[in-house]
Structure formats: C-alpha cells, structure tokens
Write a structure and sequence with these properties.
Number of helices: 8
Strand content: 15-25%
Order of helices and strands: EEEHEHHEHEHHEHEH
Number of domains: 1
Oligomer: single chain
Mean pLDDT: 97
CATH superfamily: Alpha/Beta hydrolase fold, catalytic domain
CATH architecture: 3-Layer(aba) Sandwich
Distance between the termini: 32 Å
Radius of gyration: 17 Å
Shape: globular
Largest sheet: 8 strands, mixed
Amino acid sequence: MIKEPDSLSDFTIFPFSSGGAERAVYRKGSGPAVVVMHEIPGISPEVARFARYVAKAGFTVFMPHLFGTPGKPVSTAYVATEMALACISREFRVLAENRASPITDWIRALAKRAYDEIGGRGVGAVGMCLTGNFALTMTLDPWVIAPVLSQPSLPFPLTARKAAALHATPETLANARRRAAAEGLTVVGLRFAGDRMCRRERFDSLTRELGAAFEGIELPDSAANPEAPKLAGKPHNVLTMHLVDRAGEPTRAALDRVIGFFRERLQ
C-alpha cells in the first residue's frame, strides 16, 4: 500500500465539458486511447500506478477525475467519506439494476473525444469498483472495443437479485451480444473469489448474457497484497491496492492480461 501522496506531475491535465458538466482529465502517454475510470475513493497513488503501466505499454491514458482528491493516499476514513458522497450523488445510481449511472453519458463523450483526436482501431476502457460496470455501458459506442470491468460493484449487493445485476440497460446487453457476434467484441472482467461487493453471481450473469464473449478472471483471496486493507475482510482492488507487483504473482498476471488485451484489440 502506497502511503505517500502522488503529485501526478508526470500527467498533463485538461478540462473536458459535456452535458453541462466540466471535469479535469489526467492524460499520459502516446498511442491508442484508453479511458481509465478510477475507483473509490479517487485517483489514488495505486490507480495512478496502474495508469502509468498502461501509458508505458504504448497507450494514451485519459483518466477523468470523478470524485475524491487526486493523488491522495487511501485510508478507511477517506473511503467511507467518498462512498457516502457517491451514494447521495445524482450522478451515481448505486442501487440501479437495469440502468446505468447518469455519469456514464459524460464518460462516453470523453471516449468519443479521445477517439476523434487519436483515431486508430478504437478506444479501450477500464472501470474499477464503483465505475467497473461503466465500461460495459460504453460498448454502446462502436469506437469502444476493449472494455475491462475490474471488480464491478454496482448495484451494491444488498439482495441476491442486486448481487447478480449488471447496472446496465437491456439495450446495452443486447448491443454487446450483437457486437460480439458481428465484430468479435470481448469483455474482460476481474474479481477476487471472496469479494463481497463484486460477488460471483455478477460474473455468472455476465457469462449468461455474453457467453464466450466474456472473459472472467477470478483470483484467489490469498493472491492479494497482505499489507493492503480489505473491504469487509476480503480483498477487492485487483489492479490497484491488492496488486502484488512482482513477476509470477497472480495479480501481476491479471494486470499483464489487461495490458495484453489492450494490445490485442487496439494496437
């Protein structure tokens, strides 16, 4: 776990406006575009580390600031505060089962802006935790061709039905199936086996809806970074806090698979 603040000084920052909302976007790298949507509580040093891996691999990272304080280290109090704010925000619908959060419209517009500028085969997208399902909704746009859902946690699994729900409209799922059949679209998902926010039922639903077009990666809890705090006693953050950043580690293999997926689809 990284305890020092990250200045993010190696990123450039630009404002992006859509639908009457303006947010800062952190940018780094060159090559095909990848939209990195950070998790709760914000653009933590661990999220920034992941974004740097993507940029180093030959991509242009577009990382919007959605909540929290950029560069601030993770703490229990910080997570609790940002989670509470997200729950009451009009931009997030944390209990919605068959529709996406309104903020996905702004994120889709950012992906279009990135594609219009950079071009290429298309755009990659990775969401994490609260934003995890957003990458699925982004496949409504044909330029999003490499979606990654890391521990997708919406809707919050307060009931068995919500644990299995996908926070996506029927239109989104139908379009993803159509694109899988017509274009070979693939969706990658990652979770820890014991994760209580992103339960296996959600991956079962993705498999049922998308079939072979869903590549689910499930890691044993024992593979998580033992020094990082856990959510309800279980590991959660596959690509960030619970990453063990060493060759041969299962979490590093998962990270390498995500980078490999972007290379296969975008380069």
